[in-house]
Predict the structure of Xanthine dehydrogenase accessory protein XdhC.
Amino acid sequence: MDEWIEALAALRRRGEPCVLVTLVDELGSTPRNRGSKMLVTAEQAFDTIGGGQLEFQALAIAREMLQQGASGLRLERFPLAARLGQCCGGATSVLFEPLIAPRPQIALFGAGHVGRALVNILATLPCRVRWIDGRAEQFPAQIPAGVSRILSEDPLDEVDAMPAGGYFIVMTHDHALDLALAERILRRGDAGYFGLIGSLAKRKRFEYKLGQRGLGEAAIAAMRCPLGLADVKGKLPAEIAVAVAGEIVACYGHKSRPGSDV
C-alpha cells in the first residue's frame, strides 16, 4: 500500500489539514509517471513525486495553501527544464487538492461554571480547544476528547502560543486578568475571533482602560463583549455556553464559505 494512503487515514483521525499532490499529465521525460502522489502537511510529506526542484516547488505551493486555509483545487504546469532547470527536460501538470479542512483552534481562558459548560459543547464541534486556567482544582477529573487542559501560572503566554487566526474566549474569575488578556489578544491583531464575557458596562470600562493603554478604536472594536448570540437568552451557565458556541459556529462557518476574507 502506498505510504500516503496510510498517512491520510491517520491525518483524518487527528483532523489535521493536508494537501494531496498528484501528477496528472506528463510530456516527454519526467521524474515520475502520471498518477504519482505525495501527501503534504504543514510539517511532513509522505511519498514523492520525484524529488528535485519539482517536488521542492510543489511542497512550497501545498504549504502556502495550508497556511491560507485554501479549499479549492489548484492546477500548476511545470516545464521542467525552462522553469525548474531539471535535466529530464519534459513537462508535467500537478494537481493540488486540499483534503481536510483546517479546524479552528480555540483558546478558552477560564474553568469556571460557564467555561465547564462551554467546553463540553466545543468538544463536539470540529475544532481544537486549549482550556487554560491557573487553578488545578477548577478542572473536572475527566477532560473531553479533543480538549487540552493547560494549567498555567501565566495565561498571557498562552495568548502568544496561539497561531494566527486563532479563536480566543476569555471568561476568567478575575477582571484584572481579563483586561490583561484582552490587551494581549488585541495587540496581536490577528485573532479569528475574540469574545469576552461580561455586560455592556464591563465593555465600556474595558474600552476606556484599553484606550488608556494605547489601543485604538479599530483594534478594540474586534472585541466581542457581551459575547454570544443575542437571540439566545438566559443567564444559566448552559444557556450562556449555547449562545457562545453558536457564535463560534457562525464565525467559522462564515469564514469557510467561498469569497470570505479567510
